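Here is an idea for our session: we take a single protein and study its fold together. To get us started, please write out a protein record for me. Start from the sequence, derive the backbone structure tokens from it, and show both lines together. Go ahead whenever you are ready, and we will take it from there:
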Amino acid sequence: MNSTHNLKLQMASGDRVYAVLVGPGNEPLPTVEALKGMGYDCLMIDREHSLVNPETIYAYVRAGKELQMPILVRPEENCANWRCLLDSGVSGLMLPMVDTLEEAARAVDRAYFPPLGHRGYGLGMCPFPLDGMDPARVPHLEMTEYINNNTMLLPQTESLKAISNLRRILTLDGVTGTVVGTYDLALDIGGIPQGASRLDMTRSAAVEESLAEVARICKEQGKTAGIGGVPPEDMARWATHGYRLFIFGTVTDGQLDSVRSTLEKTRQLMGE
């Protein structure tokens, strides 16, 4: 199917990609159908800030494979035991609070088979990573190369320390790009005045300077710059700086109207 590989190529070519965060309380297949119908390119199950159980993630993977829509996960920790998620057929990971090259390199080592990393071998336990290939018949290296090509790794940039190390992080083979956690970055920068709203935080001069720097670094390194947590007007503005991955959310308890309207407004503002 190469759904995730094609999505990576789409981002690498400079096309805009739209993702949506998904939390608990949704029916996987109808949710994936609805989000794909709205025009979303992939969905991101949020395990850092919400409770979504493994069986539900597996149902999302099954639905994503059926509809050829990549399913990614933001795990609870960047160093947690998330390899079983990849072995279940999850297309990739958005790792929270990756501040150092060492943290990013450890993630690459665990997420990819050789020669990129040293991911543990569990092929055949679940059919979804292989997209129907028979592990008893397909050559081993053909399978591991296919899975590597269809794995996405997005360390999040959520601190000034992360920005200082971002150039080196993005040089790693296997790192698709980065996604800025705008609220955490704003909190790390500090200096938030009393009474400031979340929008005020993300539009402060210091935060906007940092967001522009992330875009410049990603462009220099040829990697994808992603952003979430800002309204459509700001997403359209940051698209002009080179951001290409835009994350909306969160869908919980089947409430889809808000992510429908924000995507429609964003695409309209971007002239699509």
